[in-house]
Predict the 3D structure of the following.
Amino acid sequence: MILDLPFSRFIKLLLMALLLVGCSNERVSDQQWAHSDLSSYAAVFSPDGKYVLVGDTDAPARLWDIEANKVLYSWQNNDEVGTTTAVGFSGDGKVAATSEQDVIVLWEVATGKPMLRLSFPVKIKALALSQQGDYLLLALYDRTAVYFDVIKNRVIQILEHDGKAVNSPINQLINAVAISPSGKYGLTGGDDQTARLWNLETGEQIRSWKHENLVNIVAFYPKGGFVLTGAGNGQTHFWNMVTGEEQYTLRTSAWPKDKPLPNFPSFKTTTSAIAFSPDNAYLVTGHPSQKICLWAVATGDNIDCWQVARKQALRPGVVIQALAFSADGKAIYSESGNGIGQKWLIK
């Protein structure tokens, strides 16, 4: 991308932006809890922000009461302990799901008891539950996503990403899935660099948004009408579902909003986790570079960014796996791949 700027001015702006991006803003958390002995493979917060479900490596998944720092339940899908590769909550927070390879177990959060065990013919990459947990949207390693009726134990829709967007003759792997709060729509993101919006009742593809890299995160805005999608080592976008138009791109750099982002790696960052505030006015994003950022949903303006302190100084960066706001909206919870849960008071 070439900007309509004098070369010397362009270089000055670029160096200034790089300097701002590179500055460390490491912050000590207000509270911290060890949720894994070594490292966690997957994590998700309950919708009310009270609990976090951590999928450990070669250990049972554990449901933690965050503030009490207490394990409520330890869950494993089989007789032998394995790695929990995906976790999720229903929209109402009453049902949790854990996945190990090709098996999903649904758990009743109130009692910790298993509700249903589902086995699939291929491994599961990602999962999302409906509002009451009676439907699942699964990304499978056979390059499909399936919309599954839990009660009737049957596949309703099979969704695919063809390779046309990346000039491939074969379907592409699907990495991320989400179900809208109404249950009518689904989102998928794939290796074909597209995020796709689907009517889950009919299986019809409604929209497709092209990115510059494989899409690794998708989410619905809780109040409806908008979706958020992000690409690995790329940009994170907020889209209008009705028109298909982009509302804005989240910018972690100080580059002016009225100028297109330069096509340089320093202006791009993978988003690995997102959460909306209880009043839906704010958005928090987590990144593999130890970074957490707070945004205004209405404008996409960056309010604050900070670096999460590493567990050990000589270990590489921390991947933020899951985020949530406290019920009063005054704090943010984070769960990192180093097995540490943290609380951040919003300042």
In short: The chain has a mean pLDDT of 88. The radius of gyration is 20 Å. The CA atoms of residues 128 and 137 lie 5 Å apart.
